[in-house]
């Protein structure tokens, strides 16, 4: 029989009662210590006898004397109770001592703007913490249910009941060009100017062939125009390399230009200035099972602090 099956027959409260009985050697005093009635304590003693198939105590003129088995168990109880206390009283969280790996599903353009800062912060504050970055998904919930994902950046607050969504903010969009592009040196660039060129497009859904739908698409449709997409890829670095060496353009978050190493290679040539209701909204989704975890709460705050750079 497996140990779990054997232990399932034992009420752990009996071990606490036994520990008190061994100290008090009196049913009434043990009942007072445990804030229960004497009859209830007597029933507990009988359950101890039944569980361990032993009388456990003998009544003598000097009080209750433990049997050999009770004395043997009594020697083990301090260690067992101390271990149980550790199970129910988790230590205070320490970022410096944390060695967890946090996994997050995040759009590449957001990751490009915040992961480096987050990584540098972790290197200083939590050197043993690891990050596992995953591509964004239209349905991350199964992986989060299975524990394969801790967090996901999502474009809607409409999530299943076992999940919660924290609003991160919204982003406006810009059209980016490489420094060598003719539009990069032009004083005033219109949308019509940009639409004369072909675009590179970042596909952010890793499990389907459906490209991410920018809110700007509906904006363009309303104006009766569309962009010409020359190349689509899941690989952000490939997209940025093409942008740097060709006259293709890229639609990306407006604040991408302020992030590390970006402004030196690419420049925003046109801002959409979308109304807030049409801007791209982001939510940080987590499973409710991790909401009471001090480690997850700490990492969530770091994420929100870094992602707030994109909040308009």
UniProtKB/TrEMBL annotation:
Q: Which residues form the HTH lysR-type domain?
A: 10-67
The source's domain of life comes to Bacteria
Cross-referenced SUPFAM superfamilies: Periplasmic binding protein-like II, Winged helix' DNA-binding domain
Q: Which UniProt keywords apply?
A: DNA-binding, Transcription, Transcription regulation
List each coiled-coil range: none
Question: Which Pfam families does the record match to this protein?
Answer: HTH_1, LysR_substrate
Q: What is this protein called?
A: LysR family transcriptional regulator
- Tell me which species this is from: Thalassotalea fonticola
């Amino acid at each position: 029989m497996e140990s779990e099956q054997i232990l399932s027959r034992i009420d752990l409260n009996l071990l606490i009662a036994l520990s008190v009985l061994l100290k008090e050697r009196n049913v009434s005093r043990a009942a007072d210590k445990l804030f229960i009635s004497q009859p209830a304590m007597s029933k507990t003693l009988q359950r101890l006898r039944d569980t361990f198939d032993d009388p456990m105590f003998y009544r003598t003129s000097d009080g209750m004397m433990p049997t050999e088995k009770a004395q043997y168990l009594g020697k083990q109880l301090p260690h067992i109770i101390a271990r149980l206390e550790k199970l129910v009283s988790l230590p205070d969280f320490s970022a410096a001592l944390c060695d967890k790996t946090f996994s997050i599903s995040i759009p590449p353009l957001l990751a490009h703007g915040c992961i480096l800062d987050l990584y540098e912060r972790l290197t200083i504050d939590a050197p043993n913490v690891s990050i596992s970055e995953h591509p964004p998904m239209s349905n991350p919930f199964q992986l989060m249910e299975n524990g394969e994902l801790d967090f996901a950046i999502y474009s809607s607050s409409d999530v299943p009941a076992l999940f919660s969504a924290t609003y991160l903010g919204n982003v406006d969009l810009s059209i980016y060009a490489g420094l060598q592009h003719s539009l990069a040196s032009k004083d005033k660039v219109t949308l019509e100017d940009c639409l004369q060129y072909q675009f590179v497009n970042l596909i952010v859904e890793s499990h389907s062939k459906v490209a991410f739908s920018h809110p700007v698409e509906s904006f363009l449709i309303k104006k009766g125009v569309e962009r010409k997409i020359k190349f689509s890829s899941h690989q952000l670095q490939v997209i940025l390399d093409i942008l740097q060496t060709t006259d293709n353009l890229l639609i990306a978050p407006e604040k991408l230009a302020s992030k590390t190493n970006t402004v030196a290679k690419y420049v925003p040539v046109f801002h959409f200035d979308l109304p807030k209701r049409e801007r791209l909204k982001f939510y940080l989704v987590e499973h409710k099972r991790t909401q009471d975890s001090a480690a997850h709460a700490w990492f969530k705050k770091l994420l929100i602090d870094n992602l707030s750079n994109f909040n308009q």
